[in-house]
Amino acid sequence: MRRPFLSAALIAASLFLAVPAGAVPPGVGECMDCHGDKTIEMSLPGGQTVSLYIDLQAYRSSVHGGGSCVTCHADASAPHEKLKKVSCDKCHGDAGKSYAGSAHGKLRAKGITDVPGCDGCHGKHDIRRPKDPVARTFRLNIAATCLRCHKDRALEPRYQHLPDQKLLAAYEQSVHGMASKKSGLLGSAVCVDCHGNHAILPGDQPRSATHRQKIPTMCGKCHPGILDQYERSVHGKGMRAGIAESPVCTDCHGEHTIAKIGDPSSSVSPRNIPKTCSGCHDEEGISTRYALPKKRFSSYMDSFHGIAVEYGMTKAANCSSCHGVHDILPSSDPASTVHKANIPKTCGKCHPNAGPNFAKGAVHVEVSPKKAMGVFAVRLFYTIFITALVILFVLHVGLDLYGRWDRKRSGAPGGKERKP
Amino acid sequence: MPEDDRKDATRDAVEREIDAALKEQVTGLPPDQAEALREKIRLRVRKEVERDLLARTASERRAAARLAREERKKEKQAEEGELFQRFNRNFRFQHVVMFTAVILLIITGMPLKFPNFILSRFVINFWGGIQNSTIVHRIGAGMLIYFMIHHFLYTVLTRDGRRDFWLLIPKPGDAKDIVHNIRHFLGKVPDKPRFGRFSYIEKFDYWAVYWGCIIMIGSGLFLWFESIVLRFLPKYALDVAHEMHSDEAMLATLAIVIWHFYNVHFNPDRFPGTLLWWHGQLSEHEMKEEHPLEYEEILARRAGESAEVTNR
After folding, report:
1. H or E element that contains B207
2. Are residues B6 and B114 in the same domain?
3. Are A400 and B267 a contacting pair at CB < 8 A?
4. B140 and B236 share a domain?
5. Same domain, yes or no: B154 and B262
6. CB A357 to CB B235 under 8 A?
7. How far does the CA of residue A292 sit from the closest CA of chain B (Å)?
8. What chain B residue is nearest to A308 in terms of C-alpha separation?
9. Which of A79, A301, B184, B306 has a Cα-to-Cα distance from B205 of 20 to 30 A?
10. Distance (Å, whole) CA A195 – CA A250
11. Which residues of chain B are within 8 Å of residue A375 when distances are taken between CB atoms?
């Protein structure tokens, strides 16, 4: 009960003291006279209240803890009305500039306050270095910092262009998310590794770190060996040649949902690979545009390999078992795993002692007189044979039944007889 | 010999017991009737006891049991008409092996031909996944191969096998039977054709299995031992084998489901099936109805035999 009175007395006293002191700015201790009070509040026009309490200890142990309040709050005097917005640009000009060009910065410039400013990610008085394990921007804490907003369902309806919340939340279950969250690995990719930090932009903008053209290089920062293989593959070459339809890492692996090969939900698990590849290779437009062989998916799904994989026999060959993974090359390339000369070796991975005979005949069997005469002839023969036989069977059975019915109806001898 | 002494002692003990039991049973009956009954029971019981005592080895005991079964059967026949042994035990065993194999092969094979059919996944999962299902398919294949070898040896080595094989060869008479049967169905002729031991329906069934087994086992072995086959043949030969295996499977399944199932299960005379596959017997009535020529032949042969006996 005494405190408000005490505060008021202090404020009144400091008024008398401050005026003669003139231009001398208040020290941290003076600010804490008021802001050290846990009950100090400010009421907003909406009726809510905001605590104005500042944890001195948190401030002291922050990266700016050695300074004083007025470094940032230059217009602070004791007592004071609402202060001006703090700008970090004075010291962190570069960061401020890249932030201004980011998706967040642009929206903020329009006056939307939901989007994070500096404090949204870094905190206010308790800012710590990114290397500090308790910092909001510490590698292992970044996902939580970003997802604080990006998983917030209340925000979703307000911003049309916000990426799908479920997808972003899926990061936590992805191989990268699990590695950082569950295993605590610093090397695992967190949000900022792919999206950048201050200059975050949606992936469809050319300047974005996650633009298609930049994705292989971006993933290659951590996966350089795979980037090297990819660059030499037909997909990598296509991408570098500026063909936008040529797949980059994320087209096969997914983005936030990236999972290990062994995970059944992964788009590159043995079970899902055929569907992932056929996303492009079974598409009429793409096959025609790049003169790719057609019916790759259907002919695979007709083979025992395809059916066995569909039923969950993961040791059966999927697309990548034969064609390779990041180093896929067209069969015309002598270095390709599916080049005629390399077929025995490739098949030999599963079929012991595979010899040159494996290469005699198509692997993706298309049943047509031109492509596979033998199979076509057998199928044609059986189609005719089965049809003819079934017609004869049904006729015979039908006539037998008709005869029985007819004889029974007319009471003729030889009708259905019962045992005596 | 002590063994024989022991048996004699047992026999005497049994006889004493029989006498004691009979005394109680026959009191109250007139003396001549009592004597007749006494003699009848005495003979019957002694016969049983003697036979049992004489049986020295396991095989003898089994033979004795079989003899007893047959005697009982003969007694039954007096009531139900004579039973004709159509299929011997060996042949029935082959049939059981074959149909078990074929059922296993069909239910594990068809889901591979129709992976999108709604039940396929259920059937595969019934075995605990595709890995197990392929093993079951190979077990079925092994059984079918065994059946094929067994049947081949049966055909070559046994008298019944050789006789049946000759009788199963299609003859011009079968064509006549088909025409006759169709005319009968249409009501043009009142009587159905008079079949011998095997009608054209059964001949078709037999040769369909023969053809099916050769194609399925042949192409199946290609697929089973693909690495060995590909040492000698190009990949497209394997593709052809794969296609044949798949199409012939369809044909065999349809033949079984439509032709065989109708003729032995869904046909109104037979529905829902008989136990012929188990005991191998046909009643006199069924013989007259379905295999009249064979029936007459059997009777004629018997008449000839009894004539021989009387002539002797």
Report:
1. helix B200-224
2. no
3. yes
4. yes
5. yes
6. yes
7. 23
8. B130
9. B184
10. 13
11. 236, 239-240, 242-243
The chain-wide mean pLDDT, for chain A, equals 85
The pLDDT of residue A1 is 42
Clarify whether residues B205 and B56 are in a common domain: no
**A34 and chain B: CB distance < 8 Å anywhere?**
no
Compute the nearest-CA separation of B305 from chain A (Å).
Answer: 29
Whether B70 has a pLDDT exceeding 60, the answer reads: yes
- The reported pLDDT for the residue numbered B282 is 84
Is B308 a domain residue? no
**CATH number assigned to the domain comprising residue B108:** 1.20.950.20
The string of pLDDT tens digits covering residues A24-46 is 677 888 888 888 888 888 888 87
Do B196 and B102 belong together in one domain?
A: yes
Q: A400 CA to chain B: closest CA distance, Å?
A: 5
Please report which confidence band the pLDDT of residue A416 belongs to, taking 50, 70 and 90 as the band edges: very low
> Is position B231 within any domain?
yes
**Residue type present at position B132:** N
Domain boundary pick from B63, B80, B97? B80
Residue-wise pLDDT for B5-44, tens only, equals 776 777 777 778 777 777 777 677 777 777 787 787 778 7
Tell me the nearest-neighbour CA distance from A180 into chain B, angstroms: 35
In SS3 terms, B40-107 reads as HHHHHHHHHHHHHHHCCCHHHHHHHHHHHHHHHHHHHHHHHCCEEECCCHHHHHHHHHHHHHHHHHHH
User: What is the chain A residue with the closest CA to B250?
Assistant: A386
Count of domains for chain B: 2
Q: Which residues of A touch B121 (CB under 8 A)?
A: 311
pTM for the full predicted model: 0.73
Measure the CA–CA gap between A266 and A320, rounded to whole angstroms: 14
Residue B173 identity: G
What is the spatial distance between Cα B267 and Cα A400, in angstroms, rounded to a whole number? 9
At residue A128, the 3 state secondary structure works out as: coil
Kindly tell me if the per-residue pLDDT of B78 is higher than 80. no
Going by the DSSP 8-state scheme, the letter that residue B188 receives in this structure is: S
Q: Are residues B228 and B266 in the same domain?
A: yes
Tokens of A190: 């967190």
The whole-angstrom separation of Cα A8 and Cα A6 is 5
Q: Which residue has the tokens 């972003």?
A: A168
CB pair distance less than 8 Å for B243 and A379? yes
pLDDT at A18: 47
* Per-residue pLDDT at B48: 74
Residue of A nearest to B246 (CA): A379
pLDDT at residue A336 is higher than 90: yes
Contact yes or no for B130 and A416 at CB 8 A: no
Q: What are B96-121's pLDDT values in tens digits?
A: 999 999 999 999 999 999 988 889 99
Residue B286 has pLDDT above 50, yes or no: yes
Q: Could you say which of B80, B102, B122 is where a domain stops?
A: B80
Do B258 and B299 lie in a common domain? yes
Residue A375 three-state SS: helix
| pLDDT tens digit sequence for A139-161 | 999 988 888 888 887 777 777 77
Asked if residue B221 is part of any domain, the answer here is: yes
Mean pLDDT of B181-208: 89
Helix (H, G, I), strand (E, B) or coil at A200: coil
Residue ranges per structural domain of chain A: 1-87, 98-207, 370-412
Contacts of B24 (CB under 8 A, 6+ apart): none
Pick from A281, A280, A286, A250: nearest CA to A268: A250
Question: Could you tell me the residue range of the domain that residue B46 belongs to?
Answer: 2-80
